Amino acid sequence: MRKLIIIAAFILANLAVTAQKAPSGLTVASYNIRYNSPEDGVNVWENRKEWLSHSINFFEIDVVGAQEVTRTQLTDMQNFLPGYQSIGVGRDGGKKGEYSPIFYAKDRFEVLDNSTFWLSETPEKVASKGWDAALPRIVTWAKFQDKNNGNTFYFFNTHFDHRGKEARKNSAILISKKIKEIAGNEPVILTGDFNTAPDAGPHKILIDNQLLDTFSELPSEKKYSPGYTFNSWDVEAGGDRYRIDYIFYKGQALSPQKYQVLDGQRGRKFISDHFPVIVKFGWNNSAAFN
């Protein structure tokens, strides 16, 4: 009897260790927070910052790729999100200009490497503006290791130019090339405001370079979305509406499980002029997705 108890205790101990090591799910978001313009009326940053930050905490997002983040907004989000650390620099260099930062749950992930490059003909040149772009545009990336299971992955976050058609096309070509150079065959997640429709050239370039659109990879019952991401503060949601914010992925280690566009609107108040995209991934080396 005593021998059976010892064996049972040994089995339970091993099951507990296995459970601790089992790869857990990975929830990520792409979040254009809208820069803190004083002209946004009821939707000025002061009215949105706590709501927006609370949504990240509430949905327990593990890694967030944010866009249009000014230095003041970055500081505010850091204050409201004490469980997160941020990575990134301003597009004009250092602390200057808008950031495309990555926020990550600091107790869960270790950063193994990270950097920023510019979407231009000279990607290593700080504040360089490419092609016909109206503004300098950047890509912030990091290599993470999940402390829960030891798995590693690369996370890229960007914001394509809103005016330059050639800039968007060439940015898609450049970012595809850089992902291959930096990440090799490791799992990749790419988030961003790409300022492009799903049927446009830049989207096709990314798909042709083995990046998969999470929205397209999931059946309808696994998606919750109004069908667009840019709301432009329009309560009536008039005019043409489509996705311009995306979460792509690459590699066989990760697969999307659920896709959501968080349509954060309360009367005339919006969480941002873009609705954030949230995707739950599972690790394919485990059947137990959390």
Automatic annotation (TrEMBL):
Domain Endonuclease/exonuclease/phosphatase residue range list:
30-274
Keyword Hydrolase set for record: yes
Entries under CDD domains matching the protein:
EEP-1
Q: Which domain of life is it from?
A: Bacteria
Cross-referenced Gene3D superfamilies, in alphabetical order?
Answer: Endonuclease/exonuclease/phosphatase
Q: Does the keyword Lipid biosynthesis apply?
A: no
Cleaved signal peptide residues: 1-19
Gene Ontology molecular function: any one? endonuclease activity
Where do the coiled-coil regions begin and end?
Answer: none
Keywords from the named record = Endonuclease, Hydrolase, Nuclease, Signal
* Name of the molecule in the record: Endonuclease/exonuclease/phosphatase family protein
| Source organism phylogeny | Bacteria, Pseudomonadati, Bacteroidota, Flavobacteriia, Flavobacteriales
